[in-house]
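Quick one, tokens below. Sequence please?
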């Protein structure tokens, strides 16, 4: 009986971890959509400009471009386009910044 109880505790821990992972994914997605203004992404320089403007921050384009390149691992778009930030890249940035969701 004791082993059975221990087994159920382990399953509860796994269930809690699964639930937390689902919540984290939902919160990352919600935060990501704030940047993309409800779109599916990727986050572009235009999105970052809008967010900076809403925050009343004057951030030069070269800084915004560097932010995107840092977040997406240097993956560029076509021509001079700096590319965009996928939801996976966004989640990675949040984790590196030490932000936790939940």
């Amino acid at each position: 009986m004791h082993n059975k109880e221990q087994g159920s505790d382990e399953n509860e821990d796994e269930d809690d971890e699964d639930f937390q992972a689902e919540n984290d994914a939902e919160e990352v997605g919600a935060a990501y959509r704030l940047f993309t203004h409800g779109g599916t992404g990727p986050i572009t320089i235009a999105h970052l400009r809008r967010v900076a403007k809403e925050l009343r921050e004057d951030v030069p384009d070269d800084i915004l471009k560097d932010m995107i390149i840092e977040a997406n691992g240097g993956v560029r778009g076509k021509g001079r386009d700096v590319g965009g930030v996928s939801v996976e890249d966004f989640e990675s940035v949040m984790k590196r910044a030490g932000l936790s969701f939940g």
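The chain is about 65% helix and 0% strand. The chain has a mean pLDDT of 81.
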